[in-house]
Amino acid sequence: MKRITFTIIITFILCAIPTALASRPPASYGLKNNTIYGKASWYSKQSPGINKRTANNEIFDDTEMTCAIWGVGFNRMVRVTNLSNGKSIIVRVNDRGPHQRFVAQGRRIDLTRSAFRMIAPTRQGLVDVKIEIL
Fold first, then answer.
1. How much is the pLDDT for 12?
2. What region, left, alpha or beta, does residue 33 occupy, with left being phi > 0 and alpha being psi -120 to 50 degrees?
3. Phi and psi for 28 in degrees, rounded to 5?
4. Which residues constitute the domain of residue 24?
5. CB under 8 Å to 60, separation ≥6 — which residues?
6. Pairing label, strands 66-68, 88-95
7. How far is residue 113's CA from residue 64's CA, in Å, rounded to a whole number?
8. How far is residue 9's CA from residue 5's CA, in Å, rounded to a whole number?
9. pLDDT confidence of residue 22
10. Structurally, how many domains does the chain consist of?
């Protein structure tokens, strides 16, 4: 009986740790009091390397008000505010991103094209934002 219980516990730990680590934000993310400051970008179906499905297995739809961010649970809502014009939008987390190389450069969130358009013209590409986890 002890051996079975021990095996179950070890199996759980080995399965749970990679999942927990995969959704954690990079150390440089700067999460304080449920607020993150950094840059936002946008992505669409035409962006290179975009999968047909998001990290939570939804079909990717760039017309939805959704986003990709590290360390925030799927289906959580976040408010993204453009710091240069004060415009904000509330989006739902359904994907992971931005890519780690962009996180190192200050990018914190990828918005769908439709969501980004609500706070800035897409020709800007990147905007400084405040992200509040709701």
1. 46
2. left
3. -85, 5
4. 2-133
5. 45, 50, 51, 52, 53, 54, 95
6. parallel
7. 9
8. 6
9. 46
10. 1
Q: What is the distance between the alpha carbons of residues 95 and 5, in angstroms, rounded to a whole number?
A: 35
3-state secondary structure of 108: strand
Asked whether 95 and 56 are in contact (CB, 8 A), the reply is yes
pLDDT beneath 50: ranges in the chain: 10-22
Structure tokens at 63: 């017309």
Task: Find, among 118, 23, 31, 33, the residue nearest to 71 by Cα.
Answer: 23
Tokens representing 51?
Answer: 């999968």
Residue 4, pLDDT score: 53
CATH number of the domain residue 116 falls in? 2.40.40.10
pTM (2 d.p.):
0.77
pLDDT at residue 54 in the model: 93
